[in-house]
Amino acid sequence: MEAQQILSRFCPKPSSLLLPSHKKLHTLPCVGLKNLGIQRLGCSYTEGKKKRVFCVRRTIGEEAAEVKVGATMPARRKKLAVFVSGGGSNFKSIHEASLKGLLHGDVLVLVTNKHDCGGAEYARNNGIPVVLFPKVKDGSDGLSPSELVDTLRSFQVDFILLAGFLKLIPVELIQAYEKSILNIHPSLLPAFGGKGYYGLKVHKAVIASGARYSGPTIHFVDEHYDTGRILAQRAVPVLANDTAEELASRVLKEEHRLYVEVVEALCEERIVWREDGVPLIRSKDNPNEFC
Ligand code: GRF
């Protein structure tokens, strides 16, 4: 993809402000759209202890530069909710990464449909509040969709990370957290996804198909199973004599790495939406590169 196309997507809905005249601008390496009579430049300046990064759009020939803010280094740590139904190894790796200071965010609450699952136990052992969702059959325990939204709001949750959560996410939650809910799936979507594709069933189907590669997909969540926009993938080889358990374990190791990398980008506000609706991750080292 051409750099200028990408750059135009860098500021999808920029808000305007006038650059403080006393600030010294540092231009980042970007591409100017000279043939359109427009210059777009990535710039940064220092305000107190904060470094601000933004996108400048200026019609060539105009003296005054109107500055559009596209991306600012996040000042605030992001608040995360993780949803699990099982062992919670992805949850654990994200939580550990946060404790090690690798993420600009913290896990504030764990949501589960199984109060006694490994993920819930890990949360309780680590002082993370556990919330039961959805309501269990007899109705005495668990939250309704609107109560869940209220609860997440009360924790001021920014992002929701599904990590082996087997219940469909209610539309109330998807609407309340637009473009803010991620899921990890253990195959290269759109292959081997959808209702019924979970756990070892996914890996058995991959092996039976003869596919030579599998691997995790992280995608945004919509109203259906595994159909939201793909954000990141990692390929893992499928070996000739693999059992489903062996393939699952190879994919899971890669899941742990990939989910932490993606959550790191999420917390640093490095997710960029391309004009056609595809989300990209802006490289940490070079703002003009995407993964
Ligand atoms: C992972 O394989 C994930 O891709 C899928 O459910 C599994 C959860 O594993 N959605 P864990 O509970 O994180 O160990």
Explain this structure.
- The protein contains 7 helices and 16 strands.
- The strands form 4 sheets. Strands 8-7-6-9-10-12-13 form a 7-stranded mixed β-sheet, covered by helices on one side. A 5-stranded antiparallel β-sheet has the order 1-5-4-3-2, with no helix packed on it. Strands 11-14 form a two-stranded antiparallel ribbon.
- 26% of the residues lie in helices and 25% in strands.
- It has helices spanning 3-8, 89-99, 118-125, 145-154, 171-176, 200-209, 244-267, and strands spanning 15-17, 26-28, 38-47, 50-59, 67-69, 78-84, 105-112, 130-132, 159-162, 181-185, 213-214, 217-220, 230-233, 236-237, 271-273, 279-281.
- The chain is globular and about 50 Å long.
- With 291 residues, it is an alpha/beta fold.
- β3 and β4 form a beta hairpin.
- The N and C termini lie close together (12 Å).
- Mean pLDDT is 81; it is low at 1-71.
- The structure holds 5-O-phosphono-beta-D-ribofuranosylamine.
- Residues 84, 86-90, 163-164, 184-186, 216, 252, 255 line the site of 5-O-phosphono-beta-D-ribofuranosylamine.
What's the short version?
The protein has 291 residues and is α/β, with parallel strands linked by helices. The protein has helices at 3-8, 89-99, 118-125, 145-154, 171-176, 200-209, 244-267, and strands at 15-17, 26-28, 38-47, 50-59, 67-69, 78-84, 105-112, 130-132, 159-162, 181-185, 213-214, 217-220, 230-233, 236-237, 271-273, 279-281.
